[in-house]
Design a protein that fits this description.
Chain B: This is Vacuolar protein-sorting-associated protein 25. The complex is a heterodimer of chains A (261) and B (186). Chain A is mainly alpha-helical and 261 residues long. Chain A contains 10 helices and 6 strands; from the N terminus they run αααααβααββαβααββ. Chain A has a 3-stranded antiparallel beta sheet. A 3-stranded antiparallel beta sheet of chain A has the order 4-6-5. Chain B is an alpha+beta fold. Chain B is elongated and about 55 Å long. The chains are: A mainly alpha (261), B alpha+beta (186).
Chain lengths: 261, 186
């Protein structure tokens, strides 16, 4: 049974109650915030220590690096995006300027991603004429991993490549990541693939090549539709033609990369 | 004489469309570049200086028996033709030269151009302290002194052309009659 105040006094009572509830709420909130802040700062310093302790592993082991980066992302510390944000109040804890990586790893981590980005850009430019500006992230990783000169290979993971490409975005580079089927590609020519083109590329991924009749049979496309898509892909340099079989076949040049250079 | 180890073909060689001229000009350009580098490494591997297309179209170079794809004579000629043009003309940087007897069927393949051979020769002469000495062309090509050199066993015509480059640069002098040429390096 709730006690109900009678008469004018009840109004005063109620106001008082509301006020005390509010104060209590505010108290709770601030304690919460305080404890959360403590937790966060503890966590950040732990992360800091962790990164310092394992910095050599982070630098040398791509899988470990990817996991570490993923962890940073989960708690909202984007190693690259954090770079050079000098908020007035923000990042006090991390000291002046420089990115998160720079802070904890002494600068060369950022350089690492820029280095990877430079390699990716080089590779995309070099191979643009053979693959129409579409290059598989996996193939790209292999090539960057190999390096051109002896000893210049960088051991990188797909995640490093993706991160590097994303780090180029602020430059308005026109480099983007597109997903076709289960495979990720780096698109270095700012041009959209339409649904049909993406479908055909996906089929090529699975079967190795396509022909008009294969498309008609498997996708139930009209001849004109299949022909148009193929013509577009050819015109963009995304597929190569083999005319020495019984029917014209169209192949993806993704596997050509290994030899040049 | 040791037998040459098998030529390591690049992955491109097993890419079926490689043997069909590509309709897209950009792709075609990439394709020609790949052919040019393949032909050069093939010739280099076999220490071959001239390439007869009639023979080559039947050799593994232009005929991939595993894929049952081939570059026919006309196509092979188009590739070599592209190689003979300079880069300014949209060609392959003069990495080949038609040997002018009859229709375009035999070509020099310059995996090293005469000027580049000339540099190699100068380096060798200077490195072995033979500046000022006289050598016969035969010695240069077959001599024991240059056994380990890349120009060992070189085509005589190519050697003479490279030497002539040095003559023009004032770094060598050729004397003696045909087949008996001697050369002095300065």
């Amino acid at each position: 049974m709730s006690r109900r105040g009678v008469g004018l006094g009840a109004f005063a009572n109620r106001t008082q109650a509301t006020q005390s509830y509010a104060t209590h709420g505010a108290n709770l909130r601030s304690t919460h915030t305080a404890s959360l802040q403590t937790q966060l700062s503890v966590f950040q310093s732990l992360l800091h220590t962790f990164a310092l302790e394992h910095s050599s592993t982070i630098k040398s082991n791509p899988t470990f690096r990817a996991e570490f980066a993923r962890m940073c992302n989960t708690i909202g510390v984007d190693p690259l995006a954090a770079s050079n944000v000098k908020g007035k109040n923000g990042r006090r804890r991390l000291g002046e300027g420089g990115s998160f990586w720079t802070q904890i790893m002494g600068g060369d981590m950022n350089d690492f991603y820029f280095e990877v980005a430079v390699r990716v850009v080089e590779l995309c430019r070099e191979t643009r004429s053979e693959n129409g500006g579409l290059i598989g992230v996996e193939e790209c990783r292999k090539r960057v991993g190999k390096g051109k000169a002896i000893g210049s290979g960088l051991e990188v993971s797909d995640d490093d490549i993706l991160r590097a490409v994303r780090s180029l975005e602020p430059l308005g580079s026109g480099f983007s990541i597109v997903k076709v089927g289960s495979k990720q590609y780096i698109r270095s020519i700012p041009k959209e693939l339409n649904t049909d083109q993406a479908t055909v590329l996906e089929v090529i991924q699975v079967l190795g090549f396509v022909s008009i009749s294969m498309l008609r049979l498997n996708l139930k496309w009209e001849k004109a539709r299949a022909q148009t898509v193929i013509d577009d892909l050819l015109a963009d340099g995304l597929v190569w033609l083999d005319a020495q079989g019984p029917e014209k076949e169209y192949w993806s040049p993704q596997n050509l990369l290994q030899d040049s250079g | 004489m040791t037998t040459t180890p098998p030529f390591p073909f690049p992955p491109t060689y097993n890419f079926p469309p490689f043997f069909t001229p590509q309709p897209n000009t950009t792709t075609r350009h990439a394709q020609l570049e790949k052919w040019s580098s393949l032909i050069q490494s093939w010739c280099r591997h076999h220490r071959q200086y001239r390439l007869s297309l009639i023979d080559a179209v039947e050799s593994p170079l232009f005929h991939n028996t595993a894929l049952r794809k081939r570059l026919d004579l006309r196509e092979a000629r188009a590739v070599v033709d592209w190689m003979t043009k300079s880069e300014e003309e949209g060609g392959g940087g003069r990495r080949a030269e038609w040997i002018p007897d009859g229709p375009k069927t035999v070509a020099w393949i310059w995996w090293r151009r005469p000027e580049e051979w000339a540099d190699v020769l100068v380096d060798w002469v200077e490195g072995t302290g033979q500046k000022g000495s006289v050598l016969t062309v035969y010695e240069l090509i077959h001599g024991e002194g240059a056994m380990s050199q890349e120009f060992h066993g070189m085509d005589t015509d190519v050697m003479l052309r490279s030497l002539n480059v040095l003559v023009k640069r004032g770094r060598a002098q050729i004397f003696g009659g045909e087949g008996q040429e001697g050369v002095k390096f300065f």
